[in-house]
Amino acid sequence: MSSSTLPRFARLATSESVTEGHPDKLCDQVSDAVLDAHLAGDPLAHVACETVAAGNAVWVHGEIASAARGVDHEAVVRAVVREIGYTDPAYGLDADTCRVIVGLRQQSAEIGAAVDAGADLGAGDQGLMFGYATDETPTLMPLPIDLAHRLARRLAEVRRDGTIPYLRPDGKSQVTVGYGEDGRPAGVVAVVVSAQHHPGVPLEQIRADLERHVVRAVVPAELLGPWTTLHLNPSGSFAVGGPTGDTGLTGRKVIVDTYGGAVPHGGGAFSGKDPTKVDRSGAYAARQAARWVVAEGLARRAQVSVAYAIGVPEPVMVSVDAFGTAAGGRADADLGALVAGRFDLRPAAIIERLGLRRPIYRPTAAYGHFGRDDLDLPWERDA
């Protein structure tokens, strides 16, 4: 193909994802597993759980007000570590031998009173949340983050099913998409995949297997071409990974968890937080509203922004940005009024509408909270 026939990209967009064995994602999953364990025993539990993983140790800290009985936090931690695949001392972290330190304490009575006061549930904190949807993929997600998540999930699949038997749990992916003048994806410009592996595997074999069984199994062939560069384990050997190679912490992958950088982020993480924390429930409701705008054909792209004050039920802001894609030239303010009229964005209403007082959160803690076609998430259903 000559340079004159290569696609012309008007802009580029890049997003990354990580596997369930990445140290930060391991911590997110532990925090959400603790949350799920308490919600299973007490749907009204208030949980704010933070996790740190380093070497062969996992620390669980935070504040909990829960009537759930018999929650064995150490067992919860070990179960998550085991399910992810850290089951061999050679990996550095091992589910059976790791040290587990639990430092959970009672939630502040002042916070509890502010949230629970009155007949209507107040927001669990102040903050700004964003929801987004776009018609460029069937999941109504931006293509770069959609592909990055699928690549990361594929890394876990080929490790678990033995297609690439020498892989270990840690891994990362990144995708750069080129968009045409019409704003539509026109090609994948770059793919980066880094996969942890057993020592001694030839780099040439790793790269060949990643290209065949991961990249070409996920990225549509029509998006790949002479314009595409593949960076497969570009740093070379990646035998040391997980919490042995890098300390993990809950809440450090907020862009991976959301829209891959396509829109702003309010800064609040999701994992380990019960739904009274609007960092979580407000973001889920904003995604539901944005999906509705796009699914109803009101706009090709929609960003819904909401903001709250702690202890106050009504949001202090609801706005919509359609990026000039609204049908019939409808104003963003009109879309905002439609969203505010259709969706009750008070925390209690969100929790009730989406059924958020259930133990549904652990599966969301890896591979994104939005656009999941492998999970039946209430905020991803048609409104």
How are the secondary structure elements laid out?
Elements: E1 11-18, H1 23-41, E2 46-54, E3 57-65, H2 73-84, E4 99-106, H3 109-116, E5 127-134, H4 143-160, E6 167-179, E7 185-197, H5 203-218, E8 229-232, H6 242-245, E9 248-249, H7 254-257, H8 278-295, E10 301-308, E11 317-321, H9 332-342, H10 347-354
Parallel strand pairs: 3-4, 7-8
Antiparallel strand pairs: 1-6, 2-3, 2-9, 5-10, 6-7, 10-11
Helix pairs in contact: 1-2, 4-5, 8-10
Structure description:
The structure is a single chain. The protein is built from ten helices and eleven strands. It is an alpha+beta fold. It has a domain at 3-17 and 144-239: GMP Synthetase, Chain A, domain 3 (2-Layer Sandwich), CATH 3.30.300. Strands 1-6-7-8 form a four-stranded mixed sheet. Strands 4-3-2-9 form a four-stranded mixed sheet. Strand 2 and strand 3 form a beta hairpin. It is flat and about 60 Å long. The relative contact order is 0.19. The mean pLDDT is 94.
Largest sheet: 4 strands, mixed
Mean pLDDT: 94
- What multimeric state do the chains show? single chain
What is the CATH class name of the domain at 3-17 and 144-239? Alpha Beta
Fraction of residues in β-strands: 15-25%
The strand order across the widest sheet is 1-6-7-8
The residue ranges in which pLDDT falls below 50 over 5 or more consecutive positions are none
In total, the number of strands is 11
- Radius of gyration equals 22 Å
